Amino acid sequence: MENKLKNKAQKHSNNGLDVMPEELDILKHVLNHSIMVTISDEEGILQYVNKKFCEISKFSREELIGKDHPIVNASCHSRDFMAKMWDTITSGKTWKGELRNRAKDGSFYWVDTTITPFLDGENKPYQYLAIHTDITKQKEIEEHVHHLVHYDTLTGLPNRTMFLDRLTQGLAQAKRHDQKMAILFLDLDRFKLTNESMGHHVGDRLLEIVADRLGQCLRKDDFLARMAGDEFGLLLTMISRDEDVILVSDRVLKTLNQPIQIEVQEIMIKGSIGISIYPSDGDDTETLLKNADLAMSHAKEKGKGQFNFYSPRLNNKLHQNLKIESALSHAIERSEFKLNYQPQICLRTGKIIGMEALIRWERPGVGLVSPAEFVPVAEETGLIVPIGEWVLRTACAQNKAWQLKGLPKISMAVNVSAVQFKKEDFIEIVARVLNETGLDPADLILEMTESMLMENTDMTIKQFNKLKKAGVTLSIDDFGTGYSSLGYLKRFPINSLKIDRSFVNDIAQDEDDAVITTAIISLAHNLRMDVVAEGIETEEQLIFLQENECDSGQGFLFSRPVPADAAEALLQKIRWSPSLDKPPSHKQLGESLSEGSF
Ligand code: C2E
Ligand code: MG
Ligand code: MG
């Protein structure tokens, strides 16, 4: 091999080896005992390794020669790092850097490396000479220093410096991916007193135990650090729900609250937590830290042993939501839900053509809770799935029951949450409920949201088509509040659009809302869809909608959402209203309304 090398070197260089024999000995010694040398061909296949390289890598020469370089450094560096190195040397340049290699026994060693390509007449590398110096010891010292700088010696936790590093990194990532992040500041209550009265060794032991317990409260990606004395910092990244922050805080405080046994003494310790959240409470590290600290001081003022959000709005909302969440989980089995029904009126004939089922929650000790308050919580927790199924079943069964009583056939509109719709078995559930209740699919309207049209479009189209095929009517609720363009709608098999209440509310006063409403009506008609107006409260609104050929409507002007028996009474009256051959005038419709038929 050495001959072969010499030949090649002579072939490509004009300089012969110009060394004295004694110098050659020194060189030989260096080559064998102090530096590590490898030579590989243009493909990276090892052609030569010296003794020192074998000694450090723990491979024999035979095991290395003819092998590709990953034998010594597979998965030790990122793909990017390796690609850059190869780009440099294949372009004929020398590469210098530090490499982490794996020895035959699996242990790692670090080498400071210079790789020099040998170039042929066309300046193309035909061989690479790598000179390595073992820097494992130096690296160990560096790591030790890094540890000292970044970790707390007492608890072994990362320290404030490391926390700030992580915070900066986490913030950049949260910004890039549009994610939320929470910073929790924990300060032990009355720690100073314990430390002074029981002695520092007890104080130290206490901090170690606290650090240990805190570590057990964290999720995989959370980060915990000891900031100073009795202060700890927690970083929660990728939080999808504000409630998660409460859960972690709650868990931390509860764990701290367990008595701690040190020697013969039992010590009770509490902590106060301040929380700031990116992006709502600041968008730079300093502000977020300052606000978490401030929130922590307020927690102490409020009486210690508590957690406190920087934002008062979040404080209230989250505490309430958490209570709603736990109360909601039992609401179905305790039959606390009921449905109200709001009639939908044909604006040409004045007849009730349908009912919309609207959920109500009779919460014990609180009273009636509006869906606006609990549906978002139910969606976040996934509880909307069983709740939604209950709504669907109850509403379909009710419609069937009315039909069996001989009441006029109407459609039943049921609101579907995007969370429910995304479940794989949604269509199956709809089919099962229709089957079980015996309701004709044509008498069920599913009110979908505009957001479903925007997300995961192809999938949505498929699902919509399946529902359509099953004979169910599809409607888009609160239309105009999302961002879907009407052109977009063409792709979906939708039967009707419900113009959002906010437009209807102002049609008589606001020129823009009037224009939008008429545009929605005419475009929907072009696409052969019906238009339903929501929230009709005044005759003026009704007249406007009739004049602009809106098909149907619902609103307080006709009836508020009412319990099943009252809805049934309204349906009974439908029979008594004169059957109109011609569309009713506004006056007629108005009269029938004032008679209270709707
Ligand atoms: P939505 O589906 O747009 O329902 C119409 C809402 O407008 C109902 O509020 C209804 O009471 C109200 N409303 C009807 N007419 C008028 C009017 O003339 N003036 C005014 N100011 N309001 C009127 P509700 O019952 O509080 O429901 C609010 C929202 O909660 C619903 O909006 C719907 O998005 C959701 N929701 C209700 N029930 C369910 C359900 O069973 N499942 C799901 N996923 N969501 C539901
Ligand atoms: Mg609705
Ligand atoms: Mg609506």
Short summary:
With 598 residues, this protein is α/β, with parallel strands linked by helices.
Textual characterization of the structure:
The chain has 3 domains: 107 residues, PAS domain (Beta-Lactamase, 2-Layer Sandwich); 160 residues, Alpha-Beta Plaits; 263 residues, TIM Barrel, CATH 3.20.20. It is α/β, with parallel strands linked by helices and 598 residues long. It is built from 25 helices and 22 strands. It is elongated, with a radius of gyration of 37 Å. The longest helix has 21 residues. The chain binds ligand C2E and magnesium ion (2 copies). The site of one magnesium ion (MG) has 4 residues, from loops.
User: How many strand units?
Assistant: 22
Instruction: State the end-to-end distance.
Output: 101 Å
Number of domains: 3
Summarize the main sheet. Answer: 8 strands, mixed, barrel
Indicate the radius of gyration in whole angstroms: 37 Å
Shape, per Cα inertia axes: elongated
Q: What is the fold-level CATH name, i.e. the topology of the largest domain?
A: TIM Barrel
- Which molecules are bound besides the chains? ligand C2E, magnesium ion
Write the layout of secondary structure elements.
Blueprint: H1 2-12, H2 21-34, E1 36-41, E2 46-49, H3 51-57, H4 61-64, H5 70-73, H6 79-90, E3 95-102, E4 108-119, E5 125-134, H7 136-150, H8 160-177, E6 180-189, H9 191-198, H10 200-216, E7 223-228, E8 231-239, H11 242-256, E9 260-262, E10 265-267, E11 270-278, H12 285-301, E12 307-309, H13 312-328, E13 337-346, E14 352-363, E15 367-369, H14 371-381, H15 384-404, E16 411-415, H16 418-422, H17 426-437, E17 444-448, H18 450-454, H19 457-469, E18 473-479, H20 486-489, E19 496-499, H21 501-506, H22 511-526, E20 530-533, H23 539-547, E21 552-553, E22 562-563, H24 564-576, H25 586-594
Parallel strand pairs: 11-12, 14-16, 16-17, 17-18, 18-19, 19-20, 20-21
Antiparallel strand pairs: 1-2, 1-5, 3-4, 4-5, 6-8, 6-11, 7-8, 9-10, 13-14, 13-21, 13-22, 14-15
The structure holds ligand C2E and magnesium ion (MG) (2 copies).
One magnesium ion (MG) binds at residues 477-478, 498, 534.
